[in-house]
Design a protein that fits this description.
Number of strands: 10
Number of helices: 8
Number of domains: 1
Structural class: alpha/beta
Order of helices and strands: EEEHEEHEHHHEHEHEEH
Strand content: 25-35%
Strand order of the largest sheet: 6-7-8-3-9-10
Radius of gyration: 18 Å
CATH architecture: 3-Layer(aba) Sandwich
CATH class: Alpha Beta
Shape: globular
CATH superfamily: P-loop containing nucleotide triphosphate hydrolases
Largest sheet: 6 strands, mixed
């Protein structure tokens, strides 16, 4: 599903180039749910931007669903991003003047899908996240958790190969955060949705079947279960 091979990235300061990622390699299989975690400045957000085609690596390659994507130009990257990747953001990024169903349908609008088909797909996605009774509500009429569910529906509506969630519980209280994490786990289990969560919150990361820790631009641990189970122990 995802192949990151020997990827490095640096950013220029006034006097030098500062390395952010250092020869990172990572494979995520179809149907996996994993967290990429680390402290601020560790490189996890840069890694997400590269995987999400929001930036390019200085070296190395990235392939998503068999498609090499690291060297695409801006236009081709935008098209590939719309087709292959669904995004969920900390701040929801919903358009305030659009209803839940219209916000959900936006990725299909950009693909040129006809209006009736967009509406039908958006309604199905909202029903999947438990918002079938809130489809015609504006974002201001929804709670924070409901807004994030709309964002998740929007990420799902185009049936992408991969969903990237950037601090998806960062603006939510603990109870709502728990609801959103349960939804991610359910989607992963029942629909085998491939999900990568980028988070600084160890309790969120600990609930994921796989936890990848980034420190100083390198992957320092890649754990499938033991840390999660230990985190739940007394």
């Amino acid at each position: 599903m995802l192949e990151v091979s020997d990827v490095s990235k640096a950013y220029a300061s006034r006097t030098e180039r500062l390395p952010v990622l250092r020869s990172i390699s990572l494979t995520v299989k179809r149907g996996e749910l994993c967290a990429i975690t680390g402290t601020s400045g560790s490189g996890k957000s840069t890694l997400m931007n590269l995987i999400g085609l929001l930036d390019r690596p200085d070296s190395g390659t990235i392939a998503i669903d068999g498609n090499l994507v690291d060297s695409l130009n801006g236009h081709d990257a935008a098209e590939m991003r719309n087709r292959l990747i669904g995004f969920v953001f900390q701040s929801f990024h919903l358009l305030h003047h659009l209803t839940a169903v219209d916000n959900t349908a936006l990725p299909l609008l950009y693909r040129g899908v006809p209006k009736v088909a967009r509406r039908r797909a958006a309604e199905a996605a909202l029903a999947l996240v438990g918002l079938e009774k809130r489809m015609d509500h504006l974002p201001e009429q929804l709670s924070g958790g409901q807004r994030q569910r709309v964002a998740i529906a929007r990420a799902l509506v185009g049936q992408p190969a991969l969903i990237l969630a950037d601090e998806p519980t960062g603006n939510l209280d603990s109870n709502t955060s728990d609801e959103i994490m349960r939804l991610f786990l359910e989607l992963n289990k029942t629909r085998e949705t491939t999900l990568i969560l980028v988070t600084h919150d160890p309790t969120v990361a600990a609930r994921c079947p796989r936890r990848i820790i980034v420190r100083d631009g390198r992957i320092v641990d890649d754990n499938r279960g033991e840390l999660r189970n230990a985190a739940r122990s007394p």
